[in-house]
Amino acid sequence: MYKKALIHKSLNHSTDNERLEFLGDAILSFVIAEFLFLENKNEDEGFLSKKRAIIVGRKHLNLVGKKIIPSNEIKSNLKKIPKSVYGNALEAIIGAIYLDRGIDQARRFIKKHIYNSEFLEELSDIDYKSKLLKYSQKEKIKISYRVEKQKGPDHNKEFIVAVFLGNKKIAKAKANSKKEAEQNAAKKAIKIVF
């Protein structure tokens, strides 16, 4: 089962990790919701949801997966393994742990590697687009984002997004999703503008 958790669909669609990933995703979301609920007794639903979104977010899981899963353990026919494959395999591993050892072991694994991850601080509460929007509203300047280029196959797309204040291009950045590229561009713009 653990071997199956590391089989990407490009290698063998009939024995890939997608069913385990589906299960692991649900368990991860439940366990993180439980941790947050129990440890943040005075926080409202909005806070809890936002925190959970960061912890179970694709970007975070990709970072954790890449750290704990050796690339030579992932079985695929891909020339280069995209970051998302690590995050998906991580969820599949959670599904396998749950089926093999039960919810308590899954909980321990999630707490150690995901809930207490070293990557969370850099991902938490930094919404550069919102920061930039506040600035632009205060200064009464229109802000817009434009995809300048997208390339690569569906499973590994790259977006280059530019951010404009008024009609002036301030910065541009690239990432594997449009949303992430916009955040990266906003982050660069903030450093330039402020």
Count, helices: 8
Counting helices, strands and paired strands, the structural category is: alpha+beta
Total number of distinct structural domains: 2
According to CATH, the fold-level topology of the largest domain is: Ribonuclease iii, N-terminal Endonuclease Domain, Chain A
What value does the average pLDDT take? Answer: 91
Shape: flat
Query: Unreliable stretches, pLDDT < 50, 5 or more residues?
Result: none
Corresponding CATH superfamily of the largest domain: Ribonuclease III domain
Characterization of the model:
- With 194 residues, this protein is of the alpha+beta class.
- It has two domains: 4-123, Ribonuclease iii, N-terminal Endonuclease Domain, Chain A (Orthogonal Bundle); 128-193, Double Stranded RNA Binding Domain (2-Layer Sandwich).
- Helices cover 55% and strands 13% of the residues.
- The protein has helices at residues 18-39, 45-55, 58-68, 83-101, 103-115, 120-123, 128-138, 178-193, and strands at 143-151, 158-165, 168-175.
- A three-stranded antiparallel β-sheet has the order 1-2-3.
- Helix 1 crosses helix 5 (103-115), helix 3 crosses helix 4 and helix 7 (128-138) packs across helix 8 (178-193).
- The radius of gyration is 19 Å and the shape is flat.
- The model has no long low-confidence stretch (mean pLDDT 91).
